[in-house]
Amino acid sequence: MSVLSREELRAAISGQPPLVEGIDPQTQLQPNGIDLRVDRIQRLTSPGLLGAAPNLREPAAREDVQPDADGWWDLHQGSYVIGYVEKVNLPADLMAFARPRSTLLRSGVALQSAVWDAGYSGRGEGLLSVLNPRGYRLQRGAAVLQLVFLRLSTATADGYKGKYQGEGQTGPAGSITGPAGSITGPAGSMT
Fold this sequence. Notes:
- By secondary structure, this protein is mainly β.
- It has helices at residues 6-13, 25-28, 102-105; strands spanning 2-3, 20-21, 29-30, 33-44, 49-50, 57-58, 62-64, 72-75, 78-84, 87-89, 94-100, 109-112, 121-122, 125-130, 136-139, 143-151, 176-178, 181-183.
- Strands 1, 3, 4, 7, 9, 11, 12, 14 and 16 form a nine-stranded antiparallel beta sheet that branches. Strands 2-10-13 form a three-stranded antiparallel beta sheet, with no helix packed on it.
């Protein structure tokens, strides 16, 4: 495996489909990855479930946290699920790891994500944990994580086909839909 460079990423975002859709290469393309921006924040409202059998899993229920008129969220200490603006399209020979922006960590905020498997396509989600007892302010559209892409030694014959394939895709009337609702407005918009 090898990590893709900025030059390889620039070529990949020009492909069909683009590796990552809806980015500004001038600000989001980094030497070793691509920054993703926060589009929505949801608070957890129930327990989740993960059993030993594949059909015994259910994420916790959620409700949207509304930003203020300027797009800022005032987050109290706790856990939140965030959705990203950009759509990621991983081919059969690439996978990715997500790492938080260091500004979050320096402020007592952690961002966690699962492995982004080869063959996955969608607008992913992450777990934002505000550990700072004084909370944290975050603005819609802020770059919160960097996806680092790794080329597999051999392309997988059978890419990701799990429950979250296609999450956050454009739904009816241009809304962005996810497992727990939708964000209204044009696809990829910040309003």
